[in-house]
Design goal:
There is one protein chain. With 403 residues, the chain is an alpha/beta fold. 57% of the residues lie in helices and 6% in strands. A 4-stranded mixed β-sheet has the order 3-4-5-6, covered by helices on one side. The protein has a two-stranded antiparallel ribbon with strand order 1-2. Helix 1 packs parallel to helix 6 and helix 6 packs antiparallel against helix 9.
Length: 403
């Protein structure tokens, strides 16, 4: 619990306020907490040897399996409970700042069972291996093994990794956590029964279940995950031109985004040939759209449900109006680049960049272009901007009117 809490606390800016980000961050902590759980079980498994009470325990009437479970289950259960408490605490920390979406606890059952299974399997290893270095070596080997398989392992092995990497906005199929629980729990139970049961054959049923679940996971591959339907939806404010749309996962941030862009839309009132909307659907803008500056990954433009720098956000959004997703990329002339920068600076003034431009001798042409655009009367400026956006929308930057 403390390890998960430390890992989550150190990265709170990147997940607090997003339900999917929270679930992914809690699950990612498994790369460290699962090896530690196995190491805790391994250390507990060597307790009798360190206390030199093995012969004493062998004289009791309690069978070996019962003795193993009495010592192993408390650690296994407590590491699972600690992980669940850390996950629930992270969700409670996200709840006040969430601006859309819903909690995603689907991975928690499988992860908790994997934690308990790691502790149980580690306990068996602690009984078998006599060295005191077994626990720290197991922790290090477990961390390296999980990380290597997650980042660069064979494609067939990744679905079997209980700490597999998950992308923000992805959800598991409904049975994946339960299959993962059978896979990890079955292997741990088989290890315990093979070591301590009077009849070793009793290890075969859990082993068979684990192998069946493993085959199912491996054969499913990428089919274990699907995109959250909310990532393909947008929530829009159509009262402005262009309309302002945000991804439905952050629907509650639409008023903030609209306020940040109010200055831009106000200066564009009466201008023609504009994009239909700023879009935020996770890909390149479609025809007639401009790309909204990214709200994700959290920790940059947005932290805990708030825009970190509305002025910069508006500046980036103004620049996106000139970049149409249906236009081929091409090298722009210096005149067109200067005109683009002047339009952006007029639509969304940015104090820090304005100061930089004011004192940079190489930006004299930009200062002159911006001054001419500002000196135009309202009607003349609207006509000029309409011609400018018509040239950019038609993918003919060479037709951009001069300033």
């Amino acid at each position: 619990m403390l390890t998960s809490g430390a890992l989550l606390g150190g990265t709170a800016d990147r997940w607090q306020g997003g339900w999917s980000e929270t679930a992914v961050q809690v699950h990612t902590a498994m790369v460290i907490t699962l090896p530690l759980a196995a190491a805790a079980g391994c250390w507990q498994g060597g307790r009798e040897r360190r206390r030199r009470t093995e012969e004493l325990w062998a004289t009791t009437v309690r069978p070996p399996l019962a003795r193993l479970l009495v010592a192993a289950l408390p650690v296994a259960l407590w590491v699972a409970v600690g992980y669940l408490v850390a996950g629930a605490s992270a969700m409670l920390a996200t709840w006040p700042y969430a601006r859309g979406d819903r909690p995603h606890p689907a991975l928690l059952p499988g992860d908790a069972v994997a934690m308990a299974a790691g502790a149980l399997a580690g306990h068996v290893l602690g009984r078998v291996v006599s060295t005191r270095l077994a626990a720290p070596l197991l922790a290090m080997a477990g961390y390296v093994g999980l990380a290597v398989v997650a980042l660069d392992g064979p494609a067939a092995a990744r679905p079997l990794n209980p700490a597999a990497l998950v992308a923000v906005g992805e959800l598991p199929v409904w049975w994946q956590p339960w299959a993962m629980a059978v896979w990890t729990g079955g292997l741990a139970c088989a290890c315990a029964l093979a070591y301590a049961a009077r009849r070793r054959v009793t290890a075969l049923p859990p082993l068979a279940l684990a192998l069946a679940a493993g085959v199912l996971l491996a054969q499913s591959g990428e089919g274990l995950w699907h995109a959250d339907p909310l990532t393909r939806r947008q929530v829009c404010d159509t009262s402005t031109t262009p309309a302002v749309c945000v991804n439905a996962r952050y629907a509650g941030m639409l008023p903030q985004v609209g306020d940040a862009l109010a200055g831009v839309t106000g200066r564009l009132e009466g201008v023609r040939n504009l994009p239909v909307r700023w879009a935020d659907h996770g890909g390149a803008p479609r025809a007639g759209e401009a790309e909204l500056p990214g709200l994700i990954p959290l920790g940059w433009s947005a932290v805990r449900g708030r825009l970190t720098d509305p002025e910069r956000f508006a500046w980036e959004a103004a620049g996106a109006l000139s970049l149409r997703g249906d236009c081929p990329e091409e090298q722009l002339s210096e005149r067109v680049q200067t005109t683009d920068d002047a339009v952006r600076g007029y639509l969304a003034p940015h104090a820090a960049r304005d100061d930089l431009d004011r004192f940079d001798p190489e930006r004299a042409a930009l200062r002159e272009a911006r001054a001419r655009l500002t000196r135009m009367d309202g009607h003349e400026r609207r006509e000029w901007l309409s011609a400018y956006f018509a040239a950019r929308a038609g993918c003919h930057p060479e037709e951009v009117p001069a300033l």
